[in-house]
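Give me the fold.
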Amino acid sequence: MRNKAYIFCLLFTLTLAFFMPVEVFSNEDKGESRLEAILKSVAGPRLNYPNNQVMDLSGKKTLKFQWSLTTANLVELDYIEFYLYKGEVINEKNLVFKKRLENNEYSIEIDSGLFEDGGAYIWGIRQFFLGGEKSNEKFILFEVYKK
């Protein structure tokens, strides 16, 4: 029953999006179809772990970050970029780790030595599609402590 409701909601959302004005979803100067534009507009990563949590890294060698990708088969994903920032502000100065990942990777482990006790961090990923399009960046704030 729950799966049927989920499928109905997904189909309903895509149907509504499909009938919205073309200028909202199309990128005609790049030859992008309406369907591709719609799928890219709703596609994006989902950050699963850590998720707005206080992470205990006591005695742990790594912290594993996990996500899922929500692209449709018609949108060809090229690669993913992972970002880790120290503090609560996203800028180049606070970037402590960045890595390009393959389009079929759903996690990365970062050495716990990179994190300071009591520190706040922001992590996120961005999807890059063939043809140069990008998803919106998704970010999550979390804190670290070590005993």
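Residues 8-29 have pLDDT under 50 and may be disordered.
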